[in-house]
Amino acid sequence: MKSITLHALCTAVALLSLAAVARADDPAPAAGLQRESIEWCDVWFTHADKTDKPRVLLIGDSIVQGYFPVAEREMGDAVYWGRFTTSRSICDPVFFQELALVVKQYKFSVIHFNHGLHGWGYTEAQYAEAFDKLLKVLKEDGQGAKLIWAATTPVQSGSSMGTDQPRVVERNKIAAEKVTAVGIPIDDLYALSIDKPDVYSKDGVHFAQEGKELQGKEVVSAIKKALSN
């Protein structure tokens, strides 16, 4: 398959411009706003000039970025892709500025989303409130896309994130209750990885190629099911 892939440089510039405008309007950081030492955002569209096939959007962080090539390979030429990955927590208002620019650019048939491994400076109550907002935005701006929530992947004991595994469990519980209540299917990447320490990279958070293969194939299975319904 000949691939025409556009790395959305214009979108990245727009994101920076939008963030700059937000800072100009309110130069003081919002109360309680948490920042990581490095913040990043990656937006990627394949076959950006075509509309003759379903387009699928993956939303998440570096975990999604890791399994994206596997999902792309496994789906073959059945769909066109969009990817929005970022270090920003859903508790960060800038996350929603970035998200709005992505979801409004194309009509997606399926949006597969997760974002639970960032923003540890926020409480679970704040995460729950932000997750409600995320669902609202995806429903209102997703142009009828079928939604799939992916459970946040486990953190290994002694990982570079420390002892945050209980918080992953709690955030997954919060999100699972909310998506179940509105009929959004769950792609349980947590259960897929929890008892497989050998599929992790050395940092105990990210995944070796074997783990990426497992996740990418599972994601494709969930997407195919959504497309067929």
Structure description:
It is a single chain. With 229 residues, the chain is of the alpha/beta class. It has a single domain, classed as SGNH hydrolase (Rossmann fold), CATH 3.40.50. The chain is built from seven helices and seven strands; from the N terminus they run βαββαβαβαβαβαα. A seven-stranded mixed β-sheet has the order 1-2-4-3-5-6-7, sandwiched between helices. Helix 2 crosses helix 7 and helix 4 runs parallel beside helix 5. The protein is globular and about 45 Å long.
Structural class: alpha/beta
CATH architecture title: 3-Layer(aba) Sandwich
Number of domain units: 1
Mean pLDDT metric? 87
How much of the sequence lies in strands comes to: 5-15%
The CATH H-level superfamily is SGNH hydrolase
User: What's the number of helices?
Assistant: 7
Poorly predicted parts: 1-29
Radius of gyration: 17 Å
> What is the CATH topology classification name?
Rossmann fold
Report the helical percentage: 40-55%
CATH class: Alpha Beta
Major sheet description: 7 strands, mixed
Order of strands side by side in the largest beta sheet?
1-2-4-3-5-6-7
Number of strands: 7
Distance between the termini: 26 Å
Give a quick precis of the structure:
With 229 residues, this protein is α/β, with parallel strands linked by helices.
What's the layout of helices and strands?
Blueprint: E1 5-7, H1 9-25, E2 41-46, E3 55-60, H2 62-75, E4 80-86, H3 93-103, E5 110-113, H4 124-141, E6 146-150, H5 165-181, E7 186-187, H6 189-193, H7 209-228
Parallel strand pairs: 3-4, 3-5, 5-6, 6-7
Antiparallel strand pairs: 1-2, 2-4
Helix pairs in contact: 1-3, 2-7, 4-5
